[in-house]
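User: Hi! I'm working on a homework problem where we have to compare a predicted structure to a textbook description. Could you give me the structure for the chain below?
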Amino acid sequence: MQLDVNDPLLQLADAIPWQEFDEAFSIHYAKSTGAPSKPIRLLVGFDLEAVRDLVTNQ
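Assistant: Happy to help. Predicted structure tokens:
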């Protein structure tokens, strides 16, 4: 199965400057303590999905 390059979420993912999010949020995570953190891209993606759902449901 391949991803559909015309999918709006895939296009949005390509347009987001993920490296900037990594740099901005990395100061809040320590690599030496606790469980390994999830990738920032995953966490921001969840937030974007939640906002999208809120907007869609209104």
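For your comparison, note the following. The mean pLDDT is 84. The radius of gyration is 14 Å. Good luck with the assignment!
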